[in-house]
Amino acid sequence: THPGNPKEQLGAVGSLLPSEPIILEQEGSAWQLVPRKIQELTIKGCQDPFMVLDLDALVGRHQTFLQALPQVQPFYAVKCNSRPWVLRVLAALGTGFDCASQGELEQVLGLGVAPSRIIFANPCKAVSHIRYAARSGVQLLTFDSEEELAKVAQHHPGARLVLRIQIQKSQSSFPLNDKFGAPLEACGHLLQAARDLGLAVVGASFHVGSDCQTPQSYQQAIADCHCVFEMGRRAGHHMSLLDLGGGFPGTEGSKARFEEMARVINAARAQYFPEGTGVEVIAEPGRFYMESVCTTAVNIIAKKAALESGGHRKLKYYLNEGYYGAFRIFLREPVSRIPIAVKEFPSEPSLLPCTLYGPTCDAFDRLSLKEVQLPELDVGDWLIFPDTGAYTSSMSSTFNGFPIITVYEAMGPHLRSLLETAP
Ligand code: PLP
């Protein structure tokens, strides 16, 4: 199959106006756009990098999340990928949103999402952003310090606050514990301080770190939130919201880990917050929804070969997308990404140690610190990186004059009709 009636009026770089997605003849065929676009661009002689974003797959991720965690309401973490069509689809599916700044609040509210479906989940906010939340009716705000309480008391006294706690034990690819979260020992004091300021604390939250490796971390964190609920009630707060944060893995290969997390969460919820106690449970998944939904194709724009002592060849490939574009997150990932080479070889090619660089003049602009094993390729060849939907385009810059990557969003007829009938 191939897309019918492609409407590819891509918006200006950085524009928040949603460009029209490509409408596919049937669901599940978005990946076929990758070779098709490669062919088209190669014929045109314009081998710019691009990303395909499969909006049907995004719907699938949402369904998988709800199936595994039926009592948890997802508030999608906008920072993970803030493409307008991603937000539009999720808004139509009825998710809530976790926003980190005024800009994200504006983007989500601009879609017509009710302020009650938003949590402003950055524990350290600028005063002007707090004021904007107050003006816009966004009431759920996280905090983890007394200083934040003082700002909220002055600028948003009607807020419904959620106390973000530190995690005791967790292994994750991107830990967040140093920067955010109040230690359990400090929570009693913070809850009393909120009470003294006349502020309402309604719940507790945590983040086990993005791409969490240890499902049991949720059990400990939920148990700790239970303690915070008890402390809050003693201080006179009406505690009714448990926020599990993010941390859920996003690749297809991490299915078993996600299922284990869901088992741990469902059991801990039944133990500490059983049904009938009136506690609403939400989460802020980002990576889980987005990582596997995008595929990126890049082109080799330059190449160098070097001879090592012993006569071994090493290669340097220079790609037209890199650290300052959509691949900023790669350097912080525990395992180097190995792209798929789009090239036919007469027989199984031997692999060589290769360094992958981005296109800018900065030496830091590379895709991994270690070499990766790839076949001998040439200038003009294409490489494909799957699983590039999380923290990629949303972290891009135009450093050195390289534009933000073009993203082709695609959806099938079912999703299109859902969006047409969505309120
Ligand atoms: N919630 C908060 C407060 C975060 O800071 C983040 C990520 O940094 C997320 C949710 C999303 O996390 P993940 O992508 O691991 O689901």
Question: Concise description?
Answer:
The protein has 423 residues and is an alpha/beta fold. Helices cover 30% and strands 22% of the residues. The protein is globular and about 70 Å long.
- Residues in helix, %: 25-40%
By DSSP, the count of extended strands is 19
Q: For the CA atoms, what is the radius of gyration?
A: 23 Å
Unreliable runs: 1-17
Main β sheet profile: 9 strands, mixed
Query: What oligomeric state best describes the polypeptide chains here?
Result: single chain
Percent strand equals: 15-25%
Mean pLDDT metric: 93
DSSP helix count? 11
Order of H and E elements: EHEHEHEHEHEHEEHEEHEHEHEEEEEEEH
Layout of helices and strands, plus pairs?
Layout: E1 22-23, H1 33-44, E2 50-54, H2 55-68, E3 72-77, H3 84-93, E4 96-99, H4 102-109, E5 118-120, H5 127-136, E6 140-143, H6 146-155, E7 160-164, E8 172-174, H7 184-196, E9 200-205, E10 210-212, H8 216-234, E11 241-243, H9 255-272, E12 280-283, H10 287-290, E13 294-307, E14 313-319, E15 340-342, E16 352-357, E17 372-374, E18 382-385, E19 406-411, H11 413-421
Parallel strand pairs: 1-19, 2-19, 3-4, 3-12, 4-5, 5-6, 6-7, 7-9, 9-11, 11-12, 14-16
Antiparallel strand pairs: 2-13, 8-10, 13-14, 13-18, 15-18, 16-17
Helix pairs in contact: 2-3, 7-8, 8-9
